[in-house]
Each structure stands twice: as structure tokens, then as C-alpha cells.
């Protein structure tokens, strides 16, 4: 099974990884419409990835958007993306322990 998972990750074209990188960066944009569109696209693309690669996208999202060094825009973009992933059923149950406290922090976020 581990070999199959590794093969699935290797099948993701470099261009897809570059697009995901661009979208994750766009989640911190100063324009709300850009953040919203990026969050929607992250959900759509993640929906077509392997479970393991999708989890890597989530990990990268959490690292980028939910630090107290980040702006309110990054937190907002991160919440939009989490909402989109959740709506699509892509937020794995084992991630809830990590994600729920971050969402609670986001509700109380002040800068």
C-alpha cells in the first residue's frame, strides 16, 4: 500500500504543484475576491488529488495561513479554503484535532 501511495504522489505533474503553490499564496492576497477564488480552486484541485497528496496540500495550507505572524487576510483565506475542503468532504477526520482549534482561534483573531 505504501508503494501505491508513493506512486500516486509521483503521478502529480509538476505544473499542478506549481498551480497549488500559486493558489496557496493567493489565499493571503489583499483582495477578498482573489482569496475566495483561490480557496474555491484549492478545493476543486484537491478533490482530484490522491488522499495523501490532498493531505499535504492541507498541511501546507495550515502552515501558511494560521500563524500568529500572519495577517488577518491570511487567516481569512485559510478559513475560506478550510470551508471549501470541508464542504467537499476532503477534511480528513484525523485532522479535526488540529483544525478545530485553529478555526476557534480564527474566530477570536485580532491584529
SSE diagram, text form:
Layout: H1 2-10, H2 14-26, H3 32-47, H4 51-65, H5 72-87, H6 96-107
Helix pairs in contact: 2-3, 3-5, 4-5
Quick rundown:
The chain is mainly α and 111 residues long. It has helices at residues 2-10, 14-26, 32-47, 51-65, 72-87, 96-107. It is built from 6 helices and no strands.
**Straight-line distance between termini:** 45 Å
- The class by helix and strand makeup works out as mainly alpha
Largest sheet: none
Q: Report mean pLDDT, rounded to a whole number.
A: 88
Number of H- or I-type helical stretches: 6
Shape: globular
What share of residues are in beta strands?
under 5%
Uncertain regions: pLDDT < 50 for 5+ in a row?
Answer: 4-9
**What integer value in Å does the Rg equal?**
14 Å
SSE string, helix = H, strand = E? HHHHHH
Helix content: over 70%
State the total count of DSSP E strands: 0
What does the model show?
- There is one protein chain.
- The protein has 111 residues and is mainly alpha-helical.
- The chain contains six helices and no strands.
- Helix 2 runs antiparallel to helix 3 and helix 3 packs parallel to helix 5.
- The longest helix is centred in the middle third of the chain and has 16 residues.
- It is globular, with a radius of gyration of 14 Å.
- About 5% of the residues have low confidence.
